Automatic annotation (TrEMBL):
This is Jg12602 protein. One of its GO terms (molecular function) is methyltransferase activity. SUPFAM superfamilies: S-adenosyl-L-methionine-dependent methyltransferases. It comes from the Eukaryota.
Length: 315
């Protein structure tokens, strides 16, 4: 980098900082000044840099997965059906488009739209500008949501703990757990064989330690042995994959087999999840909502974006 380039980037950084500072009142500014001259600022900066690095790693994994699966990120062997109850019951094949958030972040989606590979709208009457925004859904959690789970919601110390992802699909939760936590065991259970093959290829391609991470091709209902010894269970909504009856069956199974004291992370409140299945009252005392364990790391996230991740403990 030349002297003049360096001068320019420094000037631009100062200008961006001034934009931020200009929005603060005197008290806020004083607090920022104290933070910058303290040791905790250096520590925060280190964490921020390590989050950027792990994000790059997860992005590389996502790019490898894109080469293995169809653009729509849904397998030919899957039977994915819009749900008839719950907050996604308005989805149907015409108004809904699946864009996998682990594979495509907002910037990448904007790029796909620009290149015409993805549309944001659909035509209501096939002839005019009378268009409607498509509902974008994702079957995977985004990289940012995964970082929030491991760096804010869960405890930092997970040695000797087993993490289970119910319905591990492309493996996003497993790779994030591998790189963002020190959990001793990370297990994914996924009923679709093609999805399991993708996860196994990625685990091999990135030389992950097979004593630490594994994928099991099964219906979770067949594997109470794994469920019973898991300390942290993560479940991204299954609405598109199981019907109401199976959903109810699964929750009775979870109630019977989740270990007391284990954590459950959901991306929808338990009241909404069980309410639409008519089970909430019956399950109300089974779990309690918990505060994030690493609140000090919220500074690295735009918390409003993650208000839809919930941490529960099993009573
Ligand atoms: C919404 S995706 C979640 C993907 C991943 N956990 C994530 O958050 O990125 C749900 C996955 O659960 C799987 N699934 C649904 N019911 C299941 C069951 N009973 N046993 C195992 N896998 C199941 C589906 O095949 C699908 O791949």
């Amino acid at each position: 980098m030349s002297d003049s380039d360096e001068g320019y980037s420094l000037l631009s950084a100062k200008s961006r900082l001034l934009d931020v500072f200009a929005d603060l009142d005197d008290l806020e500014l004083e607090s920022i000044e104290r933070w910058i001259s303290s040791l905790s600022y250096k520590k925060d900066l280190e964490i921020k840099k390590s989050l950027i690095n792990s994000d790059k790693l997860l992005k590389n994994i996502g790019d490898s997965i894109k080469k293995m699966i169809p653009f729509e990120a849904e397998m030919s062997t899957e039977n994915i059906i819009p749900p008839s109850v719950g907050d996604q019951a308005d989805c149907n094949k015409d108004n809904t488009c699946h864009v996998d958030e682990f594979l495509y972040d907002e910037k990448q989606v904007a790029e796909l739209v620009k290149r015409g590979k993805l549309k944001r709208q659909y035509c209501l009457d096939c002839s005019s500008r009378n268009v409607q925004d498509l509902i974008f859904i994702s079957h995977s959690l985004s990289r940012q949501a995964l970082q929030y789970i491991f760096k804010v919601l869960l405890p930092n110390e997970l040695e000797d703990k087993q993490i289970l992802d119910i319905g591990s699909r492309l493996g996003s939760v497993l790779y994030a757990a591998y790189h963002l936590s020190n959990a001793s065991r990370i297990v994914g259970i996924e009923m679709n064989k093609e999805c399991c093959e993708v996860q196994e290829k990625i685990i091999g391609q990135y030389s992950m330690d097979l004593d630490r991470i594994s994928v099991v091709n099964s219906d979770v209902l067949e594997r109470h042995d794994i469920v019973e010894c898991s300390d942290i269970i993560i479940m991204n909504v299954l609405d598109f994959f199981v019907d109401e009856e199976k959903h109810r069956e699964m929750w009775y199974f979870f109630k019977k087999h989740f270990k007391k004291g284990s954590y459950l992370i959901l991306n929808r409140t338990i009241a909404e999840t069980l309410g639409c299945l008519g089970l909430f009252e019956e399950f109300m005392d089974w779990l309690s909502i918990c505060k994030p364990n690493q609140m000090e790391n919220e500074v690295f996230f735009d918390v409003e974006d993650y208000s839809e991740l919930y941490l529960y403990s099993i009573n």
